[in-house]
Amino acid sequence: MSQPTPPSAEDPELRTERTFLAEARAALQSMHTDVVTTETVQDYSEDADYTFTNRLLRMDRQRRADALTGLGDTPLFFGRLDYPCGAVFERAPEDPVTHTRDREADRVYIGRRHVHDSAGSPLVVDWRAPVSAAFYRAGPDDPQGVVLRRRYGFSDEAEITAYEDEPLTGAAAADDGDAGRSLLAAEIERPRTGPMRDIVATIQPEQDHLVRAPMRPTLCVQGAPGTGKTAVGLHRIAYLLYTERERLRQDGGVVILGPNRSFLSYIRRVLPALGEVGVRQNTIEELIGRAPVRRTESTESERVKGDARMAEVIRRDLWNQPRPPEETLIVERGSRRWRVPADELAEVLDELRSRDIAYGAGPNLLSQRIAHVVMRRIENDGEAAEPGTLAQLRRNKAVTAAVRRMWPKADPLKLVLGLLTDPDRLARAADGLLTPEEQKAVLLPGKPRSPKSAQWSAADQALIDEAATLIERPDTCGHIVVDEAQDLSPMHCRAISRRCTRGSLTVLGDIAQATSPAAADRWEQVLQHLGQPDAHLAVLDRGFRVPAQIIDYAAGLLPEIAPGLDAPTGVRSAPGSLHVTGTDGDGYADAVVQACREALKDEGSVGVVTADADAAALHRIFGDEGLDSGIAGESDDALEANRLVCVPATLAKGLEFDTVVVAEPARIAAAEARGLHRLYVALTRAVSTLHIVHTEPLPAALARPRR
Ligand SMILES: Nc1ncnc2c1ncn2[C@@H]1O[C@H](COP(=O)(O)OP(=O)(O)OP(=O)(O)O)[C@@H](O)[C@H]1O
Predict the structure, then answer these.
(1) Around Cβ 192, how many Cβ atoms within 10 Å?
(2) What are all long-range contacts of 420-426, with beta carbons under 8 Å and residues at least 24 apart?
(3) Region 350-378 average pLDDT
(4) Residue 496 banded pLDDT, cuts 50, 70, 90
(5) Ligand 1 binding pocket includes 520 (Cβ within 6 Å)
(6) CA 85 from centre of chain
C-alpha cells in the first residue's frame, strides 16, 4: 500500500483529482438547479382533484432539492474503486476518455450523493448503491473484481489533500493489515468541535454488514462503548431509506429513539449530511408522552412500574370499569314502555366483556346489543318495527344513559391516576401480581385531583400508554431505530413494539451500560418484550472511540457489572492517554481546574463528567477561575457553544469528547443503584485523554495496578 500522498499542489495526480472534484460539484449544482427550476409548480395540475397529489409532489421535490444541498464543507466523494477497463461501463471505441472511463480502468467514485453529468452518466455513485458495497468490503482475500481502492483525505474546506491507494490484486496486493488505517485513525482523532459526524468514508467491514442488513428480521446490535453502534444505526436508516423509501413512507416513516435531548441534539446533523432530512428523532417520552414528565421515580418504584406485570394490572383495572346495572332499564316509545331487567342487561355485558375487543369499542357494541334486546321485545309483542327503529333505540336517552353507566368512557390519564391514587382499587387490580410493598411503591405522591396536577414520571408515561392502547390503537411507524436500548423497561419495550406492528426495529445498545433500574440483563428479554424474539443478534467488539489503554482500564469494571460480557478491544493505542490524580479535599477543585486547563491547550472538546448533584457547583468553580464552560442538558447547543462542558453523569450516555475529566468517580458510583454501570459509561467517553481526579477511594475494580 502506498502512503498517503503529501498535500502537494504540484502532484499531477492530486491536481487531476481536484479538477474532477470541481466538475462533480458543478454537476451537483446543475442537478439542484434542474430540480428547483425545471419542475415548476405549473407542471402539476392545479385541478382541485389533484390538490393532495400536488402537495405530495411538491414535498417530494423539496425533499429531492434538500437532498442535493446541505453538503457545505463536506467532501462530495471520499473514495474510488478501479475496475479493469470495460468491467463496469459499457463503451464504444469512439467514446471519449473521461475521469470515470480511463484507458486503463473503469473508475467508480463513491460519495454521499449520486451525481451525474448533463448526459446522465454517473460521476459519483451514492455510497448506498450496491456497487459501492465493494468499497467497504473488498480486500486482497476477496477483491470482488476491484483492482485498486483509493481513499481521499480532505481539508476542513473539503479540498482534497491526500490519497491513499490500496491495490487489491496482483503482486502489490500484499496482505497489508494497515490498509486504510491511517485515514481511519486521522478521521477518528480529528478534534471534536461540534455535533457527531458521519462515518461514511470509513465504515468498517463489520459495520457495513450491519448497515446493509435487510430490514427484516429486526437487528439487535450489542456493542461495547465506541464500537460505532450509533453510527451504524444512523447510516442504516439512510441505507434503508435508499432501498425501501416508498414502503417506509407508506408504513409511517422512520423514527430514531435516543435516551435524551442532549444526545439527539448531538446526532442531529448526521442524517442530513447523508441526504436524509425527514427522519423523526425522539426520546421515548416524546414518542409516547401524553403528559409532561415532572418527576423522577425512586429506584424501587421505577423497577416495579417498568415490570411487564404492570400491563396486566392496568388491563384488569380497565376491564373492572364496566359495571352491571342495578336497575331495570325502561325505554319509552310513544305511549308504550319496554323493560329490560338488570340481570338480563348484566348477561349482555358479560357476553361482550368475554370478547376480545378494544375497550373503546365497547359503548357502541353495547348500545347495539341493548337496542336489539328491546327490538326483540317490540317484535314479540306483535308491533311492526320501522326500518329506523333500531337506530332510534340506540339513541334513546334511557339506553344511552344505561350504556354510559355500564361502560364508562375511559381516559388513559384518568384511569392511571385513579389506579395509582386509590390503594383499594390498586389492590383489586394487582391481586396476586404485586406484593403489598410493590403496590405501595407505585402509588403517586401527594393527592393529585386531576391528571394536570399529577407529577408524572417517565415510567408513568409507559403505564398511560399501555392504558391508551387498550382503548384504541396508536399510530405506527415503518421502522424504529432504538439507541441505548439496554435501558428500556419491559413496559417501554411494549410501548415501542405497539408502534411497530407492521415494521421492524434496529435495536442498539450495550448491556454493560444499562443504568435504569428496570433494565434487563440479557438481550433476549428485551427482544421478547419488543415482540421481536426472532431478531438477529450481532456483536461489535472493536472500539474506535476510546484508546486501548483507557478501554482496558474501564473494562476492569466488567466482571462486576456485566459478567459474561467479553472485554472490547481498542483499535487505537495511545500510551499516556490515561491519568489518575488522587488528592485531598482542599486540592480537589484545583486539580480538576488544572486538568481542564491542560486539556484546553490542545484542540477539541473537553467534557467534565461528575455526579449530577455536583455539576452546577463545578460550573461555578470554572466561572470563578475564568474558564468559560457550559452545562450539558441546559440548552440544545450546550455541547457546541463551549469547548469545556460540565456533564451530569446521567446525561453522558452516547456522548464523547476529545478529553474527558471524570471528577470524583466514587460519587458517580454511589449516586444510584447501578452507579458502577454509570461510571463505566463516564470512563468510556474519551477519544484521546481520560483524566480521573478523586479524593475518595476509587472503586476496588479500578484501584488495581495499570499497565
Ligand atoms: N468506521 C468508523 N470510522 C470513523 N469513525 C468511527 C467509525 N466507527 C465509529 N467511529 C467513531 O467512533 C465514535 C464512537 O461511535 P459511536 O458513538 O457510534 O459508538 P457507540 O457504540 O454508539 O458508543 P457508545 O456505546 O459509547 O454510545 C464516534 O466518534 C464515531 O464517529
Answers:
(1) 23
(2) 420/444, 420/460, 420/463, 421/447, 421/448, 425/317, 425/320, 426/313, 426/317
(3) 92
(4) very high
(5) no
(6) 43
DSSP states of 93-105: TTSPP-SSB-SSE
Question: What number of residues does the chain have?
Answer: 707
187 three-state secondary structure: helix
Ligand 1 atom closest to Cα of residue 509? 25
CA dihedral 596, 602, 603, 609 (to 10 degrees): -20
What lies within 8 Å, CB to CB, of 190 at 6+ separation is none
- Per-residue pLDDT at 1: 39
CA of 191 to the centre of ligand 1 (A): 14
d(CA 375, CA 379): 6
Please tell me what DSSP assigns to residue 35. Answer: I
> CA-to-CA distance for 677 and 562, rounded, in angstroms?
9
User: Which among 668, 397, 420 is positioned nearest to 554, based on CA atoms?
Assistant: 668
Q: What is the domain partition of the chain in residue ranges? A: 12-249, 280-307+413-542, 322-406, 548-702
Binned at pLDDT 50, 70 and 90, residue 8 comes out as low
Coil vs helix vs strand at 42:
helix
Annotated binding site for ATP: 223-230
Give rounded-to-5 percent helix, strand, coil for the chain.
45, 15, 40
CA distance readout (Å), 461 to 293, 305, 317, 342, 468: 8, 10, 17, 38, 10
227 near 452, Cβ under 8 Å?
no
Indicate the CATH number for domain 548-702. 3.40.50.300
Return the ligand 1 atom nearest residue 234 CA. 18
Q: Is the CB of 143 under 6 A from ligand 1?
A: no
Instruction: Confirm or reject: Cβ of 188 under 6 Å from ligand 1.
Output: yes
Q: Any bridge partners for residue 691, and if so which?
A: 579, 661
| Rg for the chain, CA atoms, rounded | 31
More confident of the two residues 45 and 525: 525
Q: In angstroms, rounded to a whole number, what is the distance separating the alpha carbons of residues 478 and 250?
A: 8
What whole-number distance in Å separates Cα of residue 563 and Cα of residue 94?
A: 66
Binding residues are 223-230
Which atom of ligand 1 approaches the CA of 201 most closely? 3
With H, G, I as helix, E, B as strand and everything else as coil, classify residue 167.
strand
**Pocket of ligand 1 contains residue 570 by CB under 6 Å:** no
The alpha carbon of 546 and the centre of ligand 1 are apart by a number of angstroms equal to 9
Which runs of consecutive H residues, i.e. helices, occur in 42-138?
51-67, 133-137
Kindly state the average pLDDT of the residues 680-698. Answer: 97
Q: Shortest CA distance to 515 belongs to which of 482, 484, 540?
A: 484
pLDDT in tens, 155-171: 878 889 888 899 998 77
Q: Which helix (H) or strand (E) holds 538?
A: strand 536-540
Q: Is the CB of 486 under 6 A from ligand 1?
A: no
- Closest approach atom of ligand 1 to CA 207: 1
**Ligand 1 mean position, distance from CA 390 (Å):** 65
For residues 655 and 626, is the Cβ–Cβ distance under 8 A?
A: no
Neighbour count for residue 458 (Cβ, 10 Å):
21
Whether residue 688 has its Cβ less than 6 Å from ligand 1: no
